[in-house]
Amino acid sequence: MSTLNLIKIxxxxxxxxxxxxxxxxxxxxxxxxxxxxxxxxxEGSKExxxxxxxxxxxxxxxxxxxxxxxxxxRLDNSASQSLTLKDLAALKKETSLLTHISPQVNKGGQxxxxxxxxxxxLYGVSPEYLPIRVLTLAxxxxxxxxxxRTAAKVLVIxxxxxxxxxxxxxxxxxxxxxxxxxxxKVIGVLNKKGESTFGQDQDNIMLAPYxxxxxxxxxxxxxxxxxxxxxxxxxxxxxxxxxxxxxxxTHKLDGMENDFNVFSQQELISTFSATSEMLTVLLVAIASIxxxxxxxxxxxxxxxxxxxxxxxxxxxxxxxxxxIYILLQFLxxxxxxxxxxxxxxxxxxxxxxxxxxxxxxxxxKITLFSxxxxxxxxxxxxxxxxxxxxxxxxxxxxxxALRFE
Length: 405
Description:
- The chain is an alpha+beta fold.
- Helix content is about 55%, strand content about 20%.
- It folds into three domains: about 5-50 and about 270-405, no CATH class; about 65-95 and about 230-260, no CATH class; about 100-230, no CATH class.
- The strands form two sheets. A six-stranded mixed barrel has the order 4-5-10-7-9-8.
- Helix 3 (about 85-95) packs across helix 8 and helix 9 (about 265-310) runs parallel beside helix 12 (about 370-395).
- The protein is elongated and about 105 Å long.
- The protein starts with a helix and ends with a helix.
């Protein structure tokens, strides 16, 4: 019997019981659609995390003071003041992998303009802070190195601060804002960035020369952190090692633990991506249960089909039909059910992800890999669960089958 005849016979058998065949496919359809949707959501979330962190500065590396410990015991409280301008100078002089470096100090408080006030944070930084954090100006200008040297009382503010202190739409550039009773002149306004990955409003920010914040608000010379950017994402890990080497030498830490901590955005991306991937695997595993249920459904229906067509099988064997052809006929029927269900499931999965993306606004990323794997799995499911009933059909005794009522 030719392969084409086997396919025709299998197809006609399925058409006789269309509703039963469709109901058998449901498990496969739902399973494939679920797997594609879950993978698309998982891949989309990973891509969304990367994009959100990249907006904060994909190459950004942060250095923070941290007390040395031994056996879990803090050795020196002064380690929280371990970063100084000397470290900043050493990094600028010796680094070969960093493009921008800025000190950072900050102070929380109330910003007041006329009759309006708003709780925010004032960050003391250098002009290099903008490219590190991928910030751009909507109007006005950034303060200059000269403003840093003279500890000028000038400000660059974010859109949230503008909206709350200047709600009537007036241009804030040139206006004065008092922060903790210290007057600062607004010289620039930042473009809107929106919320960060952690739900933090990136526009509720004010920037001033770090010397101004240190001298007028904090009354100290220590740095709360140093932010920098590597030349590229690929060189971020090497840049972290270089920073460690330079600061260990500057702090004279031979044989001792670091009294500072270095974090890169790549580490953050890896951590969040690993978490997202684990959740995706869990969701796909749950969705795959539908494929197993669908496979069991195929096996059940094929058993019923064998029972219903026992006399037909006996007649074919009696006129010379070989057991291998009987096996292949029922196996082709099982594969037809699983493959057709797989195709419908792929279409349903693609449609579902499109609806989710449109209605909920979730980041979605459909990969060819997820479609190929889902389709391959449903085909294998059809073969695996269809084999045993088909084998049973091929092993029937022709005389017993012809006598079956």
